[in-house]
From TrEMBL:
The keyword Cell division does not apply. Keywords: Methyltransferase, Transferase. This is O-methyltransferase. GO terms for biological process: methylation. PANTHER family: MACROCIN O-METHYLTRANSFERASE (PTHR40036). It holds the Pfam family TylF. One of its GO terms (molecular function) is methyltransferase activity. It is an enzyme of class 2 (transferase). Its EC number is 2.1.1.-. It comes from Saccharothrix violaceirubra. InterPro entries: SAM-dependent_MTases_sf, TylF_MeTrfase. The lineage of its organism: Bacteria, Bacillati, Actinomycetota, Actinomycetes, Pseudonocardiales.
Length: 217
């Protein structure tokens, strides 16, 4: 793992990420690529692209032939739903130029970027097969829409990481600021879904790993 890059990205983006999240992404994505699970890599909610360059670095190191797709409204967050909290409409806004600048800083090839709301871009823009997805949509409807389009395309053995997923029964240290994220996963899979695993750490890591069973098509 490129530890110096990980530390630098965690420092630059400390309001939205930390080293534990970056480590989780590394192990989940690199293992998926090492085991040659077929499909593209996607990120839903890329913001300014700090996590995106980390995904791109891992792809370049392990499987440079794989496509990386980024999805973001570049208008900030949408309206809150009844299950959402903490953030507000328009928060977390970044631009496509921010993404391009980050990729230029790290001398990485620009991925395929899909600007617009998920419900507009995912139906045609989501690759037909996905090996790994990072979902960082913050709100209930954004995560639900993401799962509806990504999970059916996820290859058997593929992985989805859902940021801000908080289950305090499983991980009492987790940050619980965005309750709509877990509710969206429960709505899609049902509570206690066997393919969903809560991750933990020494800090307030709030994240779930969803692995598609090998025998599920």
């Amino acid at each position: 793992m490129r530890v110096r890059m990980a530390i630098r990205l965690a420092t630059q983006n400390e309001a939205m990420s930390d080293l534990e999240r970056i480590n989780a992404i590394y192990w989940a994505l690199s293992t998926t690529l090492i085991h040659r699970v077929p499909g593209a890599v996607v990120e839903l909610g890329c913001n300014a692209g700090y996590t995106s360059v980390w995904l791109a670095r891992i792809v370049q190191d392990f499987a440079p032939e794989r496509e990386l797709h980024l999805f973001d409204s570049f208008q900030g967050l949408p309206d809150l739903g009844t299950h959402d909290a903490y953030l507000r409409k328009g928060d977390c806004q970044a631009s496509l130029d921010d993404v391009k600048a980050n990729f230029a800083t790290w001398d990485l090839p620009l991925p395929i970027v899909h600007p617009g709301w998920f419900e507009q871009t995912l139906p045609d823009g989501c690759p037909p097969q996905v090996c790994f997805a990072y979902l960082d949509g913050d709100f209930h409807q954004s995560i639900k829409t993401s799962l509806e389009h990504v999970y059916p395309r996820l290859a058997p053995g593929g992985v989805i990481l859902v940021d801000d997923y908080c289950d305090l029964d499983a991980n009492p240290r987790a940050w619980d600021g965005l309750p709509g994220v877990k509710r969206a996963c429960d709505d899609y899979f049902g509570p206690g879904a066997p393919q969903l695993e809560v991750l933990g750490g020494v800090g307030d890591l709030s994240m779930a790993l969803i692995r598609k069973p090998i025998d599920e098509r």
